What we know:
The chain is mainly alpha-helical. The chain has ten helices and four strands, in the order H-H-H-E-E-H-H-E-E-H-H-H-H-H. It is elongated and about 55 Å long. The termini are far apart.
Amino acid sequence: MAPKTKTRQEKAFNALRADILAGRLTPGQKLPFAELCADYSVSVGVIREALSRLAEQGLVQVEPQLGFRVTSISEADLVHLTEARREIETLTLRHALAEGGVAWESEVLAAHYRLGRCPQRDPEDPDRLNDDWVEAHAVFHQTLLDGCENPRLKAIALQLRDAAELYRRWSVPLGHRPGRDIAGEHQALVDAVTERNADEAVRVLDRHIALTTELLLDSGLIEPSDGRRGSVAS
């Protein structure tokens, strides 16, 4: 493949990905080739390659005979996913606090320090999360659970966290909650861990998970199945 073609494909892929993660292309929106070619000034082949890569990442969906669309958000799936995460992640954290040693505690502190050094928003695109922060955030939450000695419990908890990533990304540009302090929530988690206060750590993590879901439901982006505004209990 010629270098210029590869460069155009990479630029189109990155631009489409950024627009999806920032909510400029909204969940469920159709992605017709003609419009995308005009918007990004590239050929059909370049757009097709970019959409195929985005489909592999779960950001777009392929519909037979209909083409591509941005992956849809489901209220029911979000609520069920959140319920499962609150049950499994908090249980895993309890195990981590009971079973993790000083080395684990030190790793939690290191992961939190790294997270605090990353700006949450992309400096070049404030509508979306900074990829470095997303990676550091994932490492921090994984490290919190690493103290648990049950590998199956950890695997389920991390699988649920991965499933929530798309919702988490879209919660930034599509809604907001005045006064929410995400850094403060992370600090409260670390404080509870270092104090070995399992009840407080579970309370903070449970609320931390629930708030992101409430944010998305309150944004109005997801149409409730019963016609009413959804909510998740704290």
